[in-house]
Amino acid sequence: MTRLTGRFGANEAGATAIEYSLIASGIAGAVILAVYALGDTVQNTLYAKITGAFQ
User: Fold this and answer.
1) For residues 7 and 54, what is the distance between their CA atoms, to the nearest angstrom?
2) In whole angstroms, what is the distance from residue 2 CA to residue 17 CA?
3) Is 41 exposed, middle or buried (0-12, 13-18, 19+ CB in 10 A)?
4) What are the CB-based long-range contacts (under 8 Å, 24+) for 45-52?
5) Running DSSP on this structure, what letter comes out for residue 54?
6) Where are the membrane-spanning stretches (predicted)?
7) Where are the domains of the chain?
8) Model confidence, pTM
9) What is the pLDDT of residues 1-55, one digit of tens each?
10) Left (φ > 0), alpha (ψ -120 to 50) or beta: where does 11 sit?
11) In 3-state terms, the chain is what percent helix, strand and coil (to 5)?
12) Cα within 13 Å of Cα(50), Cβ side
């Protein structure tokens, strides 16, 4: 039982996967916030350029 507990404590593969998923979710959250904050501005700018190109 002691060997099993020692092996379980030494296995860090699950912890690494959880850390990577937390980092990925943080990056995804930052991207979502940036798109939400800048979305209307970028859309209006692009539509203005497209409209100006056809005039």
Assistant:
1) 68
2) 25
3) exposed
4) none
5) T
6) 20-39
7) 21-54
8) 0.56
9) 667 666 666 666 677 888 899 999 999 999 999 989 998 888 888 889 898 888 7
10) beta
11) 90, 0, 10
12) 6
